[in-house]
Write a structure and sequence with these properties.
Length: 386
C-alpha cells in the first residue's frame, strides 16, 4: 500500500467500515439514552421512547425501529392531508361544472356555515337569468299571446303589433318582468331549499325528494298569479283603452276583490308542478348526452342547448294549459268558469281539431328554445362565477 503512486487514500476493508459505523452509532446512542421522537398524525401526537436499558445492537435496533415508525407516520399523515384537499377540490369542481339529473348546485362541504350564502346565490342567479330572458324575448311572447287568445296566424299577429306601433311593442313588460324574475328566483332557489330540507328530514329516495321539491317550488310560484293576470290584460288589444299601465290594471281589479287577481289559477298549478319535475329531472341526463365540455364557452353552449330543448318540449306539452289560462284571464268580472268548461268552449270554437288547439305552438317552440336556452345558460354561467 505504500507503493500507491496515485496519492489516493487506500480503501479500507468492508468489514472494517461496517464495524466503525456500528461503534459510532453505539456511542451516539449511549450519549443520549432517553431520546424522544414525537410523531404527529393529524392532530394527535404519540411519543416513542428509546429504552435506556438497551445496549449495543439492541439500542441500535430500537432506534432504527422508532425512526422508521416516525418516518412512515409522517408520510402517511401528509398523504392523508393531500387526499382530503383533493376531495374538497373535486367536489367544488363537480358542483361548478354541473352534475347529473336532479343535480344540486351546492358544494359537498359542510353547509352549516355557508347555507345562507349558497341559498341566496341560487335566488340571485335565477333572477338575473329571467331578466335577461324577458328583455330579449318579450316581443316574440306578445305575438304568441295574440295567437293563443284569438287563434290568429303568425302573419296576422305580427301585423296587429305593427298597427299598435313601436311605442306599444314593450307595453305590458313590467308585469312579466316582475313576475318572471321573481318566479324564476323562487323556482331555482326554492328547489334547492326544499331539496336539502327534504333530504335532511326524510329517508325517502333522492328521486322522490327531488321531485317533491320541484312540485313544491312550482306550487309556491303560483302565488305570483296576479302578475300573469295583469300581463294578460295589458297584452290584449281590447283593453288598450282601459289600462295605460300596470298600476292602473291592479287598481281596476281591486274593485272585484282578491279572487279576481287569481283568475286562471288552476291551469297555472297544473302547468308549474309537472313542468318543474321534468325540467329539473331531465336537465342533467340531457347535458350528459351532449359532447363533453372542456371550457367555459363549451359549457355555455351545452347549457343553452340543454335548456332550449327542455323548454321547447315542455312548452309544446303544456301549450293547451296556457291557451286555457289566457282565455280565463282575459275576462274581467263575471262568472268564474272552471278549467274544463273553458277548455270545452275553446275546443268547440276551434272545430274540435287538435291542430287548431295548438295554433301558435310552432312559434312557442322557437321562442322556448331561445327563452329557456338563455335562462339555463345564464343561470349556470352566473352560478359558476359566484
Amino acid at each position: 500500500m505504500e507503493g500507491n503512486s496515485s496519492g489516493e487514500r487506500p480503501r479500507e476493508p468492508g468489514w472494517l467500515r461496517v464495524e466503525e459505523r456500528r461503534l459510532r452509532e453505539t456511542s451516539l446512542l449511549s450519549a443520549a439514552p432517553r431520546k424522544e421522537a414525537v410523531v404527529r398524525w393529524g392532530s394527535a401526537s404519540a411519543a416513542v421512547f428509546c429504552c435506556d436499558r438497551t445496549e449495543g445492537s439492541g439500542q441500535k435496533l430500537e432506534y432504527r425501529k422508532n425512526f422508521f415508525i416516525g418516518r412512515v407516520m409522517e408520510q402517511w399523515s401528509r398523504l392523508f392531508r393531500e387526499e382530503k384537499r383533493t376531495e374538497v377540490y373535486s367536489s367544488k369542481k363537480n358542483s361548478m361544472m354541473g352534475s347529473g339529473g336532479f343535480s344540486s348546485g351546492s358544494s359537498e362541504e359542510d353547509p352549516s356555515s355557508d347555507v345562507t350564502a349558497t341559498s341566496s346565490k341560487h335566488y340571485l342567479c335565477g333572477y338575473c337569468a329571467a331578466f335577461t330572458n324577458i328583455a330579449v324575448t318579450f316581443p316574440i311572447q306578445k305575438v304568441l299571446f295574440r295567437q293563443q287568445l284569438y287563434g290568429l296566424k303568425t302573419k296576422d299577429a305580427i301585423h296587429q303589433l305593427q298597427k299598435d306601433g313601436i311605442r306599444n311593442l314593450y307595453r305590458g313588460i313590467l308585469p312579466p318582468l316582475m313576475q318572471k324574475t321573481t318566479t324564476l328566483a323562487l323556482m331555482f332557489g326554492l328547489y334547492e331549499d326544499f331539496s336539502s330540507l327534504l333530504h335532511s328530514h326524510t329517508t325517502a329516495p333522492e328521486l322522490l325528494t327531488r321531485s317533491m321539491a320541484a312540485v313544491l317550488a312550482g306550487t309556491t310560484e303560483a302565488v305570483l298569479t296576479p302578475f300573469e293576470r295583469v300581463q294578460t290584460l295589458l297584452q290584449d288589444y281590447k283593453h288598450h283603452d282601459k289600462f295605460t299601465n300596470t298600476y292602473q290594471a291592479f287598481k281596476v281589479l281591486r274593485v272585484y276583490g282578491m279572487r279576481e287577481y287569481y283568475r286562471g289559477l288552476v291551469p297555472i298549478l297544473l302547468r308549474n308542478g309537472p313542468s318543474n319535475v321534468l325540467f329539473f329531472g331531465l336537465r342533467g341526463p340531457i347535458k350528459q348526452c351532449l359532447p363533453e365540455a372542456t371550457s367555459y364557452s363549451t359549457h355555455l353552449v351545452n347549457d343553452f342547448i340543454c335548456g332550449g330543448l327542455l323548454g321547447a318540449m315542455l312548452g309544446f306539452l303544456f301549450f293547451p294549459m296556457n291557451v286555457v289560462k289566457a282565455r280565463m284571464q282575459a275576462q274581467i268580472g263575471g262568472e268564474f268558469q272552471s278549467f274544463s268548461t273553458v277548455f270545452v268552449k275553446i275546443w268547440l270554437e276551434r272545430d274540435r281539431k287538435l291542430i287548431n288547439l295548438f295554433r301558435g305552438a310552432h312559434l312557442n317552440y322557437h321562442r322556448s328554445v331561445l327563452s329557456w336556452g338563455i335562462i339555463n345558460a345564464t343561470y349556470e354561467f352566473l352560478l359558476k362565477l359566484l
